[in-house]
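Data availability excerpt. The first of two example chains:
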Amino acid sequence: MARTRTPVVSGWFTEDAPDGGGFRLLGTRCSACTAVFFPREDAYCRNPRCPGGGELAEVPLSPRGRVWSYTDGRYRPPAPYVSDPAAPWEPYTLVAVELEAEGMVVLGQAAPGVGVADLAVGMEVEVVGGVLNEDVGTSGTTGTGGTTGASGTVWTTWQFRPVGGTA
């Protein structure tokens, strides 16, 4: 049985952009002041200088940007954050990226295999789809104690990798 791919936050990204652009973050743009928001804003324009009266429309954001800052997480989060102490800890890299067209900075994890040694401020990166976590269940058992198939959820998110990278 196939695992269900589910975005960690619905409506924040698409794996199949309408313009044929592949994976893209989704924001909203105000028609009155042209301000762009990510995370998306669906209720009202957050720009204090907006003249008002505009509509908020979903827009795919730039697929590329430049590294603004980065750091690594080398320790398991302390309480009250939930973390399975029996699971092996995997360090991760966080990247703040200034998106090409919008000029806004978006935070995300680096793609697997990309560490702080692979990044530099100003480096061009692209947004790609990734997996945050997988919940694995079983869909049944056989008479011999085996399973008939894996089920569960693959929680998808966005990640950044250097342009031209294979990570």
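And the second chain:
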Amino acid sequence: MTIKIRVAAAALFALTGCMAEQEGLEPPKAPGDVIRFTAGRCFGACPAYNVLVSPDGSGLLTPERFTSVPGPTRFTLTRAQYRRLLTTLAPHRPATGTSQRIDQKSCTRFATDMPSYSVEWTRPGQAVTRLDYQSGCMDPQYGRLRVALASIPKILDVQHMLNPKAVAP
């Protein structure tokens, strides 16, 4: 009986290893940043998910809740989409290797129960660059950032993965 348990445990361990590989992206073949965009939870029914895109055109959307995909879903993006994403985020990107946090402490007009967003730029040999934005911050100087973050699903053409109503019963 212990042999059966060992064989089952080995098979489960091997399967877990395969699943872990499938849930990430391969190291990029093209130079550039791997970008992770995370849309956090809100008090209502906001889609919560994270998207990982590579400069070579591979993408992975991992849903958390209120999306139309049941699990990690791979997609591809064109060079033009990747460049547009970089260009859209460039004015808001902190200095390489640093982090910036925009939340209730840094805002004068703040609405609670709104989703948070995070963008990470990763490149081999460099420290991670990170921007965290709590979207309840309604100060005018962050208007362009709000628009940029809201445009990411359209730029990457993943809106259909985020609409729970898109799932057929």
